[in-house]
Amino acid sequence: MKFSLSSIAVALSTISGAVQASEVIYRAGADLIHVAEQAYAESDASGSTKKMAVLKALEAFALSIGENWDAIRAEISAWIDMVVQSWNKLKELAPAPAAATVTA
Questions:
Q1: Alpha-carbon distance 22 to 62, whole Å?
Q2: C-alpha count within 13 angstroms, C-beta hemisphere, residue 90
Q3: Number of other CB atoms surrounding residue 93 within 10 Å
Q4: How far is Cα 102 from Cα 100, in angstroms, rounded to an integer?
Q5: What is the pLDDT of residue 98?
Q6: From 1, 5, 78, 99, which residue has the greatest number of CB atoms within 10 Å?
Q7: DSSP-derived secondary structure letter, 65
């Protein structure tokens, strides 16, 4: 098998582009999870409602940057579940500190 530097450069460029696109999508996903949590903070919306809102927004974003949503949807969905489960577990293990009281 023969390798050329130009074919390796093309392959690395393709891989680099895919990694950069994935990073952008995951960064947007993290931001959207935060937005959904804030948007639904005062409602009784279930986790699945918030997740669907995040997935719909990420789908639109992914398509706008030329990504194949059908190819990445399952992976992104599982990633959202992992992020939310981890966050909920952290909140359970380290609850927010009680509000400080001020005395005069």
A1: 9
A2: 6
A3: 7
A4: 7
A5: 65
A6: 78
A7: T
Name the pTM for this structure.
0.69
For residues 51 and 39, is the Cβ–Cβ distance under 8 A? no
- 18-69 pLDDT, tens digit per residue, is 556 688 888 899 999 999 988 888 888 788 899 999 999 999 999 998 889 9
User: 14 and 22 in contact (C-beta within 8 Å)?
Assistant: no
Distance from C-alpha of 2 to C-alpha of 65, rounded to nearest angstrom = 34
pLDDT mean across residues, the chain: 80
Tell me the residue type at 17. Answer: G
Task: Report CA dihedral (47, 83, 70, 72) to the nearest 10 degrees.
Answer: 180
Phi, psi of 8 (to 5 degrees): -65, -40
C-alpha–C-alpha distance, residues 69 and 65, integer Å = 10
Tokens encoding 14: 């393709």
Domain layout of the chain by residue ranges: 35-90
Query: Alpha-carbon distance 72 to 63, whole Å?
Result: 11
